[in-house]
Every structure is written in C-alpha cells, then in structure tokens.
Please model this.
Amino acid sequence: MKNLAPPSAAVAVYGIPNCDSVKKARTWLANHALDYHFHDFKKQGVPADLLPGWLSAVGWQTLVNRKGTTWRKLDDATRLAVVDDASATALMLMQASVIKRPVVVWGDGSVSVGFDADSFAERLRICA
Model:
C-alpha cells in the first residue's frame, strides 16, 4: 500500500477550500502552528492513488458523505449502486463533492475524516 504520510508537511488536508469543515480544520491547524499541505479537489482532482489507502483506513461508508447535498442530488440508481470500495471509488472520482471533508492524512500516516477540535488535538498528541 502507498505510504499515506505527506512528504513535506506534517499533515495533508484534502478537500474543497469553501467547505466550512475544511475551513475550520485549516484554521485549527494554523492556530496550532502545524505545517500542512492542502490539496484542493476542485483544482487538483481526487488523488486516485490515495483512495485505496483512505478506504482501507476509514471505509467507504465514512468516506462517502451520504448526508450531503451532492449525494441527495444523485439519482436513485446511482446511490443504490454504491455498495463497496470499487463502486464508491468510481463515484468519488466522478463527483469529488461526495467525499466527506476534510480528509486528513496525519504525519504518522493515519487518516481521519471530518473536523472535530478534540479529535484533532488527540491526533496531535498521538503524532507528536
């Protein structure tokens, strides 16, 4: 499996810049003086080579945001077709906005999805 640890920064944040959760995560990291790399799904696309590692770490059920607007706008057939890693990967590559954000790869290679200040603080202690 590909090493998920970011090459030059302690943390890699993947998402969309105008997403509220991504904004909160980036602000939290900056306020805690953590160096991070930001990967913009809209400009840089979804990193297909990293999806298998993310799926292995958190599962497609966590990675696919089935509560978001993008998911709700999908037709029933598309939603019902997402049943495993392969079908989730195909959808995430087609519709980056369906990925729950932010996806964060920490310095130790672990992966988290979404933003929660307490979880981030715990990750900081674990990765320190």
About this structure: Strands lie at 11-15, 36-40, 103-105, 111-113. Residues 34 and 61 are 29 Å apart (CA to CA).
